[in-house]
Write the structure tokens for this entry.
Amino acid sequence: MSTYQGSPDASGAGAVAEDAPNLDFAGTTPYEDYVQADVLTHLQHLRSDDPGEMVFLVTTQVMELWFTVIVHEWETASRALREDRLPVAIDALKRSVRELEALNHSWRPLAQLTPAQFNSYRGALGEGSGFQSAMYRRMEFLLGEKSASMLVPHRGAPRVHAELEKALHEPSLYDETLAFLARRGLPVPPSVLGRDLTQRYEPSAQVEAVWASLYAAPEEHDELVRLGEALSDVAELVWRWRNDHLVATRRAMGAKTGTGGSAGVAWLEKRAQKNVFPELWTARSHV
């Protein structure tokens, strides 16, 4: 763990104590080489004179970093499920839960923006909007929220577009979960296992019945129930993220059109109503 506190000259006499950290490096510090802090702290290019724009920009950049970590965790979990390594998958999902909690707390600096405060630098965004985030789109694709139209904004960025197109055609985290359950002998229907992966996942009554059977006999299916609960934790926090986004937007701009041309709050309300991993929630009514 990195140490941020302390002084190399606790005596104040100018001599470096024997147990002080090394201060003499030929180039940049090893910390800088690893963390790239200088790069990160010089990525803020403000477009207005409003002092509030800085916190908006940095908070948004922090969100992008959390998206990146969470995508990494979910891809790790997906790969582990594909390889039948359930403990590795559950560990990755549990880490992502803590990361989602940190991501959701990122709304706090923005959650009480008044319309006047947001309007003071809203023009600097131009047509920029969070739904244009490529990394957030990869998160959504991993959740089964597939849509080829969401690749369109990224046609001008070949690398980003290629990564999203690859993710569009790959199984989602939930697809890998259901394939894993099928290999464990559970009756996941072939129509679900063989679905068009480029389309949004649609709920299945048969999949609901599979989850209900697992939850009805937790002692018999302990590992699989723990997988279900880890996925439910993820789904709950994604739902909370969407609702926090909705509330922050409603507070800052009411029902006005979003910066990216969307319906703003109306668009976010529609998104917030969608269940992630839907059968994990509906199955509970049948246990």
Notes: The mean pLDDT is 90.
